[in-house]
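Lab notebook, bench 4. The sequencing result for the construct came back, and we need a structural model before the next group meeting so we can plan mutations. Quick request posted to the team channel:

Model the 3D structure of this chain.
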Amino acid sequence: MSTLCVAVWRGQESGRFQEFDVPRRESQTVLDVVTYIQRSLDPTLAYRFACRVGMCGSCAMTVNGRARWTCRTHVDKVGESGRLEIAPLHNLPVVRDLVTDMTDFFDKWARARGQFQGGTTRKDEFARVAPDSPARRLADAAIECIGCGVCYSACDVVAWNPAYLGPAALNRAWTLMNDARDTGNRARLAAVAGDAGCHACHTHMSCSERCPKQIAPTASIAGLKRATIAAALRGDLGDG
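Done. Here's the predicted structure in token form:
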């Protein structure tokens, strides 16, 4: 059985990498490696995970310089050289070791008006949305985001402009824009049209390339750009 040389980030923003030798095993994931270090070598290592099967996204980390879900990343694919470098997600404050503070990430969802806003009550009939309608198809293409933060970590614009709402928040705004039941689009368009909104995107497509769910936030952001321009031309880009 061979071993891996694993460099793991320790501390906070001003921390350092610490190296561990980890036994290499068949079908081993990067999350398996981190778990082995915490359980067998250093119980003080802080990291975050939950489902272990690619459903929650909480185990996202930076592996060899790229944001990934560690539970779905096999060592055979990224550790051919026998070395791994594991760090916290970029563009987020480091709480400790591999754990980041996701507060700003989710606050930006709120600033992008990412909450569903309905116009009916429980006494009304259920809304019926045709699954083959154009708007529903646009929403379906973007709705599977689970908020893992991989796209946010991969986004160059977030790195340059920390106020930028980011691909996940804007992608969420786009799904709601195409939800026939939602009544908050006027305020939503105003929220995503500002200097830190959709027009700040440089279309580098890192978010779409890295998304583990194969969502294309770049396409969603392009949709918001078109929608905000159309609203501005109509004189309808108000506060709602």
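The chain has two domains: 3-100, 103-234.
Will bring this to the meeting.
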